[in-house]
């Protein structure tokens, strides 16, 4: 019997404060519908200087270990996917290993490729386990990032922060990956980047959306070719993509998932023997099906709408939202996942939801994590955004969480709650 490998459990961590997106819109003199309907946003996480990619990653990993009763002596790999690391040489993963006092006999490293880094880490861990090199051990993959564009910028309402920690093992209670069916697409483009020394990213917004959609097309076609060959999907009365129970997309903002889904359906319709008989206008209309979007995508976006952009963690926050709301209904069903990182690399893969997904998600307490946040005014949000990054405020972290305490001689010190 072929070894099953995938995600056994997950946990999330978010900043302790958030701002209401309608209040932000009004403060900027913008019709709130531009943010709520146009972007699909409701709330936006506000990270202060004490909440960096290390503290968020460590908090998420600690919560995963505690909530899911993880035997850390059986963890042989720790990977952090991030594009907002704290040092050019010292890995975020090394900080997390030390803060959580994890075993020394483990492989630790960071994976950076814009928003794709977390998926790169997941695939490295899954293939390490599937190959037998892990010798029965599990891996922890953490996606941790802070999306920052600055006050009064075009990207301001698409900021956010948080982390998602994944336990990867031979007991895929959440998701059993279809190892080897992955489709990938990489292209050298300048759609989004963050030059050394900058806290804020540089983005060519419209171009980046086009790059995302182009890379999605290539990655999905690669997956579909392999899935058809293995009879996971087939051409017939329904499109191959319609044979997936749900599809989870990278979510820089929630409305992007609708654009992505339309593009994926367009690819199927362009390539389908029956779809080629349609006019381009008819294919476009079919691709924009609201029914398909509502059935396959909408339920995955609840958490993203309340947290905002989390770069590497965005797709995995969507996964958490989907399994939190539909874990029981989706047990035994196959879903598709699309990861995109600017620069660019995209990967489409599929997985089957585990029978114990709902029970695992209940332990993750995602609603509780969000409920414990503090809503702040726009004025307080602006004050936090103007704080110097090297001087975090003296705030005691909640039990089980971590904060940056100080930076002295370029060395970072963290405190546990």
TrEMBL record:
Residues 176-388 form the Hydroxymethylglutaryl-coenzyme A synthase C-terminal domain. Gene3D superfamilies: 3.40.47.10. PANTHER family: 3-HYDROXY-3-METHYLGLUTARYL COENZYME A SYNTHASE, HYDROXYMETHYLGLUTARYL-COA SYNTHASE. InterPro entries: HMG_CoA_synt_C_dom, HMG_CoA_synth_N, Thiolase-like. One of its GO terms (molecular function) is hydroxymethylglutaryl-CoA synthase activity. The keyword Transferase applies. Belongs to the thiolase-like superfamily. HMG-CoA synthase family. This is Hydroxymethylglutaryl-CoA synthase. CDD domains: init_cond_enzymes. It comes from Cystobacter ferrugineus. It comes from the Bacteria.
């Amino acid at each position: 019997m072929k070894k099953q490998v995938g995600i056994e459990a997950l946990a999330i961590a978010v900043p302790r404060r958030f701002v209401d997106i309608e209040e932000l819109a009004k403060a900027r003199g913008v019709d709130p519908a531009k943010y709520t309907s146009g972007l699909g946003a409701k709330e936006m996480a506000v990270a202060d200087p004490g909440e960096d990619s290390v503290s968020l990653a460590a908090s998420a990993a600690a919560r995963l270990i505690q909530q899911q009763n993880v035997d850390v002596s059986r963890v042989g790999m720790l990977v952090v996917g991030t594009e907002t690391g704290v040092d050019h040489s010292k890995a975020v993963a090394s900080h997390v290993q030390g803060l959580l006092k994890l075993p020394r006999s483990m492989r630790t490293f960071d994976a950076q490729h814009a928003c794709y880094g977390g998926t790169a880490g997941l695939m490295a861990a899954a293939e390490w386990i599937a190959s037998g090199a892990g010798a029965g051990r599990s891996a922890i993959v953490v996606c941790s990032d802070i999306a920052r564009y600055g006050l009064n910028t075009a990207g301001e309402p698409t900021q956010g922060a948080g982390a998602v920690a994944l336990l990867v093992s031979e007991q895929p209670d959440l998701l059993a990956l279809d190892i080897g069916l992955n489709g990938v697409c990489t292209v050298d483009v300048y759609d989004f980047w963050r030059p050394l020394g900058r806290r804020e990213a540089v983005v060519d917004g419209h171009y980046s959306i086009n790059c995302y959609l182009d890379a999605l097309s290539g990655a999905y076609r690669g997956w579909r070719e392999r899935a058809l060959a293995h009879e996971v999907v087939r051409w017939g009365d329904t499109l191959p993509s319609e044979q997936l129970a749900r599809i989870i997309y990278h979510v820089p903002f929630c409305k992007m998932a609708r654009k992505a889904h339309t593009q994926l359906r367009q690819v199927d319709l362009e390539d389908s023997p029956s779809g080629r008989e349609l006019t381009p206008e008819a294919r476009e209309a079919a691709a924009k099906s609201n029914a398909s979007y509502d059935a396959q995508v909408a339920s995955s976006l609840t958490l993203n709408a309340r947290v905002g952009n989390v770069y590497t963690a965005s797709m995995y926050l969507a996964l958490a939202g989907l399994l939190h709301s539909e874990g029981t209904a989706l047990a035994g069903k196959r879903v598709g996942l699309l990861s995109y990182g600017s620069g660019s690399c995209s990967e489409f893969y599929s997985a089957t939801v585990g029978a114990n997904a709902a029970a695992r998600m209940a332990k993750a307490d995602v609603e509780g994590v969000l409920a414990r946040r503090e809503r702040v005014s726009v004025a307080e949000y602006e004050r936090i955004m103007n704080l110097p990054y090297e001087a975090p405020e003296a705030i005691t972290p909640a039990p089980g969480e971590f904060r940056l305490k100080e930076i002295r001689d370029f060395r970072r010190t963290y405190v546990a709650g």
